[in-house]
Design goal:
single chain, alpha+beta, Jelly Rolls, 6-stranded antiparallel β-sheet, 6 helices, globular
Amino acid sequence: MTATSPQISARSADASLRALVAEFARRLAAADWAHAARSLNEHGCATIPALLAPAECAGLAGMYEQRERFRSRVVMERLRFGVGEYKYFARPLPPIVAALRAALYARLAPIANRWASAMGRGEPYPPKLSEFLEICRAAGQTRPTPLLLRYEAGGYNCMHQDLYGEVAFPIQLTCLLSRRGADFDGGEFLLLENRPRAQSRGEAIALEQGDAILFATSERPVAGSRGYYRVTMRHGVSRIRRGRRLTLGVIFHDAK
């Protein structure tokens, strides 16, 4: 019997990851990105229906109890973040999460660069996630930020921003893993926009299993009479009225 060498195992894992990245790139290519970019520009969010298959959703949800996959667990009540809990994945990320993160970043970097230019930001975002994570690393941000979130009946998430250091990517994603109406009721995704010298504007978006929503991490540009100005964005989750709701969160910048 011949033992498999670590080099062969690593090459096999790399090949599998590349295949997954290619699969997600194919799914994303089928989305209407002109519409998504327009929706992000106008509303600060855009949905991608059925990005994950039901079996993929179930597989990700099943990871929640696998303690070795995560680097930390946060109970929201303890920090007054809401009612529920979430866990940050440890490295190496599950292949499906790593592949989705890489494929999404490549699609979103051009939009992020247009936003950065409109808001007068500095250096452009590189085209590849690996290059962006090197920027995070140079700023001392080395801990992965993709996470799973779980809410029981009565749970909710207060309005917040996911910022973990001086480096931040302006767009992130949440994907619903549970089945609305079967596994839970309530739990709409909430988005709050604060414009200068104006009342706040909110949206509640109901997702179905496998649907993903892209949204502004903290700020986005809005065209005004004198050029672009910045509006502040926060997101959260409304109260779960029944059952259990799990989601995958994909944040592109790492944490300190």
